User: What shape does this take?
Amino acid sequence: MAIISTAGLTRTFRTKRGTVEAVRGIDLTVAPGEILGFLGPNGAGKTTTLRMLTTLLPPTGGAATVAGTDLARDPAAVRRKIGYVAQSGGVDPNVSVREELVTQGRLYRLTKPRAEARARELAADLDLSDLLDHKCATLSGGQRRRLDVAMGLMHRPEVLFLDEPTTGLDPGSRADLWALVRRLRDDHGTTVVLTTHYLDEADALCDRLVVIDKGVVVAEGTPSALKLRYGGSIDASLQDTFLAVTGRDLAPEDTAPVAV
Amino acid sequence: MSAFLSDTALIFGRYARQTLRSKFQILFGVLMPLLYLLFFGPLLTDLPLGSRGDSWQVLVPGLLLQLGLFGASYSGFAIIIEKQFGVVERMRVTPVSRLALLLGRVLRDAALFVFQAVLLVLAAVAMGLRAPLAGILIGFAFVGVLTVVLASLSYALALLVSKPHEFGPVINAVSMPSMLLSGLMLPMALAPGWLDVLSHFMPFRYLVDAVRAAYVGEYASTAMLYGVLMAAALTLVAVTVGTRVFRRAGA
Ligand SMILES: Nc1ncnc2c1ncn2[C@@H]1O[C@H](COP(=O)(O)OP(=O)(O)OP(=O)(O)O)[C@@H](O)[C@H]1O
Ligand SMILES: [Mg+2]
Assistant: This one.
């Protein structure tokens, strides 16, 4: 039984310069406990898809169920079961780290003592313990990103959406976050959908990858299956595979530029 | 229901703490009405204002609502900033009640402006205001309600326009005529017929008239009745609009 399934999920934006077809029909199923990675070039529609799945943006077409609930029919029930870390975060610079974490927990209806305990626990997991009483404005970029991730985990969501969670993290913090994500899945069965531009991360962390380009799914499978199919061999780099899938290849053999 | 109340208390607490951290924000709003009180009020003491009570009983209710009008209609600025930081989306993705997201903020604003109203009335008493206590308390209630109305609409507008440079001019364009047409400074009883008629289309006029009636102890007057009805209608409309916008918009 899939924990997320979408059929023809579509989103167009009307702007002054015409309509933008950000997502043009995404079909997806995610199994419980899976770690799924969205890959795709800038503007492919990854964030837009996540914003629809997290109830922030009504789809203009298609349907989806998340954690057993229809997205359109009962968005409030979906919200209770999911966590979301947005691409650009969402903390107030003038509020302290502790206050943001506790408030976030309480927005998910944790009691105050439980929210406080959970804030300490996550601060320890994400190496923020010494910063709890600092204002968010004083955090470094990577520290703030770790706080964003902690905010999404306060209520131990069943399904976790992470939009470029490791952007700006140093290699050590990145490895720690990978370990944390794996632990969430192994110990709590959390389903994780994340986007990334780091192909080593996709390779190492994700059970399955979905490559999105121009608003549609252009390839999906385990990292090895994708490498075999598009990169030519299981030992191909994911970089080459990605370029082959999205056609951003510089000079494929059969279309070599004609010399002038 | 209890989830809704605790959500509202949570949001209220968050923004009340932010306000308490800023003495500037707490006091700045009283500055303009206080200047009117000090430098404009004394001009009126011997003028025939065409209403019952002395000039302070006419002016102070107007200044109270001016405080609410100019303070609350700019409330939305804060949410534009918060939206840019992603705080609004972060809250909208949680199960927190949408009405609580609005009411928590709006009640903080109401508390702030009622507090400023108390300071203003204390200053006015020192200047010579004499009015019945019940009337003064009714005046505070109207300041609170006016704040709820205007702040709700202001937050809704701020979520819809999203750019500070679009928001400010709209608020200016609405608040200035509102102040003039509702007779905040001088009662509309002094106005020529056409202006008096025009001002009856300005909803806030009924609130000012009601507070002026309260300040001379006319609690069972038609002015009070109209004021209460108008306040109730405005609150209903503004909170409904605000909640709808919090539910849908904010992209
Ligand atoms: N609110 C909006 N109004 C208009 N166009 C939008 C809006 N949000 C996104 N778009 C457009 O939709 C397309 C997809 O954007 P999206 O943010 O989903 O891309 P992405 O895959 O997350 O890219 P990135 O890797 O750069 O984060 C882009 O062309 C973008 O300009
Ligand atoms: Mg994105």
In short: Chain A touches chain B at residues 54-58, 76, 79-80, 82, 84, 86, 88-95, 99, 103-104, 106-109, 151 (CB under 8 Å). The beta strands of chain A are 4-15, 18-30, 35-39, 61-66, 69-70, 82-85, 159-163, 191-195, 208-213, 216-221. Residues 4-246 of chain A form a domain with the Rossmann fold fold (CATH 3.40.50.300).
